[in-house]
Amino acid sequence: MTTTTIPPRRAPGRPRSDATRQGILDAAVDLMATQSYRDITVEGIAARAKVGKQSIYRWWSSKADLVLEAYTERSLYRLPAHLPSGDVFADLEGNLVRYFMVLQQEMVSKGVRSLVAEAQLDETFRAKFYEAVWRKRCEAVHEILRHGITLGQIRPDVDIETVAHVIHGASWYRMLSGTSRPFDDGYARRVVGLLRDGIALRTPVAPAAT
């Protein structure tokens, strides 16, 4: 008796092609380096990547979603892993320095400014931007602060979310406000230095012997 093997049914639609997806992200990054965000179009990205617009909309619902993923995947998510030390304030400073290194890249800073503006106009995109950028950055600081509490260097009653917002508020203001003041290693050191007195666990001073 002959047995007929029925091949497994394929899922409807074309399978995802990671090479195509990566090529589209590369095209978005290349265009961000030479054009303003408002001049970039989905059609232009598709032409650069040598794909049809349908290929882009298979993965992303808008230009903003595509640029956000290009930014996060190619920069933010490639930050070196944080390795905690015995000094939580040095860890906070190092975290900011590494983040500033990313923001100092012109393509990144230009893209982020544009995405922040987009987020103010589109509530749905604002929620995506928060999840992809703001929340992840705050969680990185939360982790450092919790480690500092465990080490006995940070007060256990400190509101770690507020501290994270203060730290990132300082960096985002420098980038978005138009000031010529840099966000560099010295700025990271000053921001953390200003926070130290407010969040450090103070060791009680023993009374003087009489």
How many distinct folded domains? 2
Distance separating the two termini: 105 Å
Q: Which architecture of the largest domain does the CATH hierarchy give at level 2?
A: Orthogonal Bundle
Radius of gyration: 23 Å
Strand element count: 0
* CATH domain class name of the largest domain: Mainly Alpha
Shape: elongated
Please tell me the overall pLDDT: 86
Helix content: 55-70%
State the secondary-structure class.
Answer: mainly alpha
* Unreliable residue runs: 1-5, 10-15
CATH topology group of the largest domain: Tetracycline Repressor, domain 2
Secondary-structure element string: HHHHHHHHH
Q: The biggest beta sheet, please? A: none
Q: What is the CATH homology-level superfamily of the largest domain? A: Tetracycline Repressor, domain 2
Strand content: under 5%
- Give the count of helical stretches: 9
Task: Provide key terms for this protein.
Arc Repressor Mutant, subunit A; Tetracycline Repressor, domain 2; disordered N terminus; 210 residues; mainly alpha
Indicate the topology:
Layout: H1 18-34, H2 42-49, H3 53-59, H4 63-74, H5 88-103, H6 106-121, H7 123-151, H8 160-176, H9 185-199
How is this structure best described in words?
With 210 residues, this protein is mainly alpha-helical. It folds into 2 domains: 18-63, Arc Repressor Mutant, subunit A (Orthogonal Bundle), CATH 1.10.10; 75-199, Tetracycline Repressor, domain 2 (Orthogonal Bundle), CATH 1.10.357.10. Helices cover 65% and strands 0% of the residues. It is built from 9 helices and no strands. The chain has helices spanning 18-34, 42-49, 53-59, 63-74, 88-103, 106-121, 123-151, 160-176, 185-199. The longest helix is centred in the middle third of the chain and has 29 residues, at 123-151. The model is unreliable at 1-5 and 10-15 (pLDDT under 50).
